[in-house]
Specification:
Radius of gyration: 22 Å
Number of strands: 10
Strand order of the largest sheet: 2-1-6-5-8
Order of helices and strands: EHHEEEHHEHEEHEHHEEHH
Oligomer: single chain
Helix content: 25-40%
CATH superfamily of the largest domain: SPOUT methyltransferase, trefoil knot domain
Largest sheet: 5 strands, parallel
Structural class: alpha/beta
CATH topology of the largest domain: Alpha/beta knot
Number of domains: 2
Amino acid sequence: MRFDVFTLLPDVFHPYLASSILQRAHQRGLIDVHVHNIRDWTHDRHHVTDDEPYAGGGGMVMKVEPVFEAVESVLGPSTSASTGSARQLKAACPIILLTPQGRVFTQKVAAELSAHPRLALICGRYEGVDERIRAHLATDEISIGDYVLTGGELPAMILIDAVARLIPGVLGDPDGAADDSHASGLLEYPHYTRPPEFRGWRVPEILLSGDHTKIAKWRREQSLLRTLERRPDLLETAELSEKERKFLIEHGYT
């Protein structure tokens, strides 16, 4: 899967992408991340990418020309969201603007995006981007939460990480992504490793029993209880059996 990132701070990506799972995924040809400096598509000697907003207001606004030129030069001409070719492009390569005004990024959205062979990510900066970027270039807008950051670089890295984990072969454990919190609509069950006892705190005996059927049942129940305790809102949309619903009601779910 290929990611094309358009940013004013290309240097911040390499240290993270060159580490751990993402580095191995790149080396194995499972992901390919291209980071493009938007300043390379400016035409003045100072490489200006922002300007004052019309009608006044605080902060600076990212200029429309260099962003359009950067995206179109990499993805191809006529990629504007208002054109027919953009609708065709959207199916193969969504152009995502990272913005606090976008739809909230969830595991479900990550799974949706992982089905595409290519994603383009536009990292906003300053006060925001010229509205014509949002209206006529971006085909999707994503927010990582209800707060404001100084730019879209961190959200872009979060999106790449979350989506890459869902690509077959990226994780060492083929079932690892399916067991993660939110993957099934619930929070993940607790994990333990050696030693079996530490400062008087013992690992639950069921995990040492070797009985895989009982362990699977315990893990599912722990996942249900943890979700009930910490994120009961998730239970409203989780796929639960009647037996599981009864189990939750017995433990206080209403």
